[in-house]
Design goal:
mainly alpha
Length: 364
């Protein structure tokens, strides 16, 4: 009787263990399959281009793409797509800095207008893949300057695609990445934020993707409040702040979230009226005062928010709660930002739908 009980128990343990054993066996197979696919992607590149990619030489990659495409825009886009896939899938995990450099060469290819016009899908894939790379904590930590350049290039490429959703999502993700590095590398953060605001201030982007335009302006307004950023590039801070006010003063954007728009106005005005920025850009305060005065009298904004005029007047008088909070934030955020920077270097990035490699951003 005891032997039967032991036999049944042993069988139950074996049955329970089998799925786990099978799963463990499947994992190496899956990894091997992915590795084989990555190798196949590399081997599919023409020899000259493969050699340039393996060397991690952006200039050589660009030359190889130009030579192999023979001025065929669609072929150039196809080659750039293959290159950026290899950068993401095969190189980034072991050498993020080289992967960023390779992706830069691919993005440079699709910045060409004929390439965008003849191969919009491949152009979009290159830009969204680059975005997945420049928001990665490893890239921001190991190669912040190169990552900032990639983000700026991706924003510029997206801004000329006539795809408002792509342009807005790229700018939004880029400025989010900029906020993560603004303490460690304020100059790089300013470079990204400036490119992002240049993109979303376009009327087609602002009205075509108002929520993401607002999100970009909101993040940019937080960035320009940072003392480290103001010290690094005070004139660019003034330009970014003015662009943020322009974006949120757009009726379509303002109507989507009036309170958020008012906060951006207050933060931007607080930034340009600091001693550091006003000394470097003495006309910035007067220019923004004119912007805000116009917004206070805009009928559509007042219809969306009956308190709009009085709230903006309070900002200009430096009496609004939003302005006072922004001013306080500008002088107290340095230490918390440094702590946040350390967390950002180790956190896992959750990709938004726009940057999921299995999703497609719709044309505007």
């Amino acid at each position: 009787m005891k032997k039967s009980v032991y036999a049944v128990a042993a069988a139950a343990v074996l049955i329970t263990a089998l799925p786990a054993v099978a799963q463990q066996g499947q994992r190496p197979q899956a990894q091997q399959g992915q590795g084989a696919q990555n190798t196949a992607n590399m081997n599919a590149l023409p020899p000259a281009l493969r050699a340039a990619v393996m060397a991690g030489n952006p200039s050589a990659i660009a030359r190889a793409i130009a030579t192999l495409s023979g001025n065929d825009a669609a072929q150039a886009a196809n080659l750039a797509t293959q290159v950026v896939r290899v950068a993401e899938q095969q190189i980034f995990s072991t050498d993020p800095k080289t992967a960023i450099a390779i992706a830069q060469a691919a993005v440079t290819t699709v910045k060409d207008i004929p390439v965008q016009q003849n191969a919009p899908q491949q152009t979009q894939e290159v830009i969204t893949t680059a975005a997945r790379l420049f928001i990665r904590p490893e890239a921001l930590r190991i190669a912040p300057e190169a990552t900032a350049q990639l983000a700026a290039s991706a924003i510029q490429a997206a801004s000329t695609t006539n795809n408002a959703a792509l342009a807005a999502s790229t700018a939004s993700q880029a400025v989010t990445a900029a906020e993560k590095i603004m303490v460690a590398n304020p100059a790089a953060a300013v470079q990204i934020a400036s490119a992002a605001m240049q993109s979303v201030r376009q009327e087609s982007v602002t009205t075509g993707a108002p929520q993401e335009a607002l999100q970009t302006a909101t993040t940019a307004a937080r960035i320009v409040l940072a003392p480290s950023v103001q010290a690094a590039a005070p004139q660019q801070v003034a330009t970014i702040a003015a662009a943020a006010v322009q974006v949120v003063s757009n009726p379509v954007v303002y109507q989507s979230a009036p309170n958020a728009a008012i906060s951006v106005m207050a933060q931007s005005y607080a930034a340009v009226t600091t001693q550091t920025v006003s000394a470097a850009a003495p006309n910035a305060t007067a220019a923004m005062t004119a912007q805000l005065t116009q917004a206070a009298g805009t009928t559509s904004l007042n219809q969306a928010n009956p308190a709009n005029g009085s709230q903006i007047d309070a900002i200009l008088a430096k009496q609004s709660p939003e302005f006072q909070k922004a001013t306080a934030t500008a002088t107290t955020t340095q230490a918390p930002q440094q702590a946040a920077q350390q967390n950002n270097n180790t956190e896992q990035t959750v990709l938004p739908a726009e940057l999921d490699r299995n999703k497609t951003t719709s044309q505007s």
